[in-house]
């Protein structure tokens, strides 16, 4: 036998688990795929993304939704920046719906829902909130309040009825559910694992999350995300202008 | 009334509205999208947030009674009257770049709301830049979301003379692009003027 097998598993770059409530940030290079795993049911991962080479370019909720005629994200969707380019593609998804429109929890909401909580009494079990979590991660890159954007909430499903009223699906996320993001540009990724802001659970109970990054290379010519719609084909074309082969 | 102005189709408009003042936006000819952002005039890092507004009222449409929330959770303005019925805050603002994705590469040259926003911010003396353009409101625009999660730009539900009226809860800097989009039904393919009126607190 000579040569390598055609289906060798992609090389792992790194993996780590996030404690319940932990926030995280890091850079995912073009051609890297990140699997995010809900290690327990009812997880939520609030997510913001920025072009690491030009931070004013960032995930744009409206451009993402209207290009793909959807209010939620799943396999085959891509996440657009405000510049008509693609930050990442969703190449696998076991749960079928990720929320894009409900935003973050904040300190006042967490105190009202779950009660007072301080480090002094509770040490690292103190209650975190989404906005403060992403703000402090953004601060590590010189970003701040001006850079708060409409975020994705991976693993959460919230539907709108005909009158526009929102309904949180508490049964949506199961233990082991995962989503895979293939990065199409060098991306600053910011994550917060606080409960979804519309999750009616009365006890503060964030869930642990698994992260695993592998090398997959960027989208191929016949990639399903590229072929999903003509809009995405043009989005990939715009993105690949930055990365000539 | 302390202010009364017509804003032609495709133009930007920027002005401070003081706490307690009431502002009316009139859709003069019907089905005109009015892309709008608000900033705390005394701390522009605080600005309109679509997701905070949606989360707080647990509803995606804006109408009478909606509190327009900031990225810090405060109420910037409230909608006190609305003869249109509902307004969008998911559809965002058109741009040259998003036009290349949504329609065709050769639509890049067409005038857009984000070009209006960027030039208005550049001319304004507060150091505001593209970082300061979060998801906006589209007054009079109809972007229904289905229970299955579908999203589309639909024909408008507005009509000539319909208006939305807002009361400022703090001093707010208002940034409007009277949308020049010609590629979808958000303006009925025919961008038209709007009227902006402001009344003193009272």
Condensed summary:
The complex is a heterodimer of chains A (245) and B (202). Chain A is an alpha+beta fold.
How are the secondary structure elements laid out?
The complex is a heterodimer of chains A (245) and B (202).
Chain A: E1 12-18, E2 23-28, E3 32-38, E4 45-51, H1 61-68, E5 72-73, E6 78-80, E7 86-93, E8 98-99, H2 107-114, H3 119-122, H4 130-139, E9 152-154, E10 158-160, E11 166-168, E12 178-183, E13 187-192, E14 209-215, H5 224-227, H6 230-240
Antiparallel strand pairs in A: 1-14, 2-13, 3-12, 3-14, 4-9, 4-13, 5-8, 6-7, 7-12, 10-11
Chain B: E1 3-7, E2 12-17, E3 22-27, E4 34-40, H1 50-57, E5 67-69, E6 75-82, H2 96-102, H3 113-123, E7 137-139, E8 162-168, E9 172-178, E10 194-199
Antiparallel strand pairs in B: 1-10, 2-9, 3-8, 3-10, 4-7, 4-9, 5-6, 6-8
Q: Based on the structure, what is the oligomeric state of the protein chains?
A: heterodimer
Tell me the Rg of chain A in angstroms: 18 Å
The SSE string of chain B, one letter per element, is EEEEHEEHHEEEE
Q: List low-pLDDT spans of chain A.
A: none
Q: How many domains make up the 3D coordinates of chain A?
A: 1
Number of helices of chain B: 3
- Beta-strand content estimate of chain B: 25-35%
Label the overall shape of chain B: globular
Query: Order of strands across the widest beta sheet of chain B?
Result: 1-10-3-8-6-5
Largest sheet features of chain B: 6 strands, antiparallel
> What share of the residues of chain A lie within helices?
10-25%
Computed Rg of chain B = 16 Å
> Span from first to last CA of chain A?
31 Å
């Amino acid at each position: 036998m000579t040569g390598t097998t055609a289906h060798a598993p992609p090389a792992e770059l790194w993996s780590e688990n996030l404690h319940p409530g932990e926030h995280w940030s890091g850079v995912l290079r073009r051609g890297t795929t990140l699997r995010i795993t809900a290690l327990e049911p009812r997880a939520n991962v609030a997510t913001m993304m920025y072009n690491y080479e030009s931070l004013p370019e960032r995930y744009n909720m409206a451009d993402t939704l209207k290009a793909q005629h959807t209010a939620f994200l799943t396999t085959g969707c891509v996440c657009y920046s405000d510049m008509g380019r693609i930050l990442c593609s969703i190449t696998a998804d076991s749960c079928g719906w990720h929320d894009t429109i409900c935003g973050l929890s904040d300190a006042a909401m967490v105190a009202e829902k779950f009660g007072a909580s301080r480090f002094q009494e509770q040490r690292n079990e103190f209650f975190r909130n989404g906005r403060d979590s992403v703000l402090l991660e953004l601060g590590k890159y010189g970003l701040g309040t001006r850079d708060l954007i409409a975020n994705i909430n991976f693993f959460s499903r919230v539907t709108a009825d005909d009158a526009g009223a929102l309904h949180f699906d508490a049964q949506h996320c199961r233990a082991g559910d995962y989503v895979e993001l293939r990065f199409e540009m060098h991306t600053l990724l910011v994550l917060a694992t606080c409960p979804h802001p519309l999750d009616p659970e009365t006890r503060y109970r964030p869930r642990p999350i698994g992260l695993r990054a592998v090398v997959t290379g960027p989208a191929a010519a016949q990639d399903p995300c590229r072929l999903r719609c003509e809009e995405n084909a043009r989005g990939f074309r715009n993105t690949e202008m930055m990365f000539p082969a | 009334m302390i202010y009364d102005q017509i804003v032609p189709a495709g133009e930007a408009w920027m002005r401070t509205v003081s706490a307690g003042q009431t502002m009316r936006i009139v859709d003069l000819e019907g089905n005109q999208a009015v892309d709008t952002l608000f900033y705390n005039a005394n701390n522009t890092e605080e600005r309109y947030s679509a997701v905070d507004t949606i989360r707080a009222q647990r509803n995606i449409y804006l109408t009478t009674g909606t509190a327009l929330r900031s990225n810090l959770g405060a109420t910037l303005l409230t909608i006190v009257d609305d003869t249109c019925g509902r307004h969008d805050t998911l559809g965002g603002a058109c741009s040259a770049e998003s036009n290349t994705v949504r329609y065709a590469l050769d639509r890049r040259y067409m005038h857009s709301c984000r070009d209006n926003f960027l030039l208005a911010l550049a001319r304004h003396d507060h150091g505001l830049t593209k970082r300061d353009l979060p998801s906006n409101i589209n007054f009079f625009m109809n972007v229904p979301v289905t229970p299955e999660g579908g999203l589309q730009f639909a024909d408008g539900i507005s009509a000539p003379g319909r208006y939305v009226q807002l009361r400022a809860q703090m001093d707010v800097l208002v940034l409007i692009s009277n949308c020049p989009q010609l590629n979808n039904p958000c303006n009925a393919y025919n961008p038209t003027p709007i009227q902006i009126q402001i009344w003193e607190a009272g």
